Each structure stands twice: as structure tokens, then as C-alpha cells.
Amino acid sequence: MKIHYSLKSELQGGITDISAPDELNIQVRNLVLKTAKGKKVERGGLIAERPSKFGGAYHAPFSGKVAVVDHHRMNIKC
Asked: How far is 15 from 3, CA to CA, in rounded Å?
């Protein structure tokens, strides 16, 4: 079996910007939520964190309004 590696790529255009989605679903199972339904969140704002001292923080990737929150997911309308 012979494997051929090539440095040529079809992605020669570089990095392109994409638009923000209309909704963003985030899995929040086993996290301590720092926001609630109906609240506005800013990009980079704290939305949840791990309950242990070794856990990390979760920040909003986009600004928007929290539409749905339950034990498993959070939905942010962008």
C-alpha cells in the first residue's frame, strides 16, 4: 500500500468570514448557569461554569437573547 501526500490544497482562498447564525444551541448539562431565560448576553460574557474547582468557564460566542434554558441546553437568539 502506497500513501501519497501532497502540499497542494483546494482551499487557496484563505480564511473567509461567515455570518452569525440566527440561533445558537449550547449544551449545558452538568454546568452552573450564570444567566437565565429572557436575559441578554454579550459576546464574551460568562454564561456558565463547571461546578468543580478545576472546571472552566463558558463564554458566549455571540451577543443575543437567551430564548430557551433547561437542564440540557441553552438556546441563544443572535
From this structure: 28
Whether the model clears a pTM of 0.90, i.e. scores above it, the answer is no
For the segment 3-46, what is each residue's pLDDT rounded down to a tens digit? Answer: 776 677 666 667 778 887 899 999 999 999 999 999 999 999 99
57-59 β-sheet, strand order:
32-33, 46-49, 57-59
In 1-78, where does DSSP find H-type helix? none
CB neighbour list of residue 53: distance below 8 Å, 6 or more residues apart: none
Q: Residue 59, CB half-sphere, CA atoms under 13 Å: how many?
A: 5
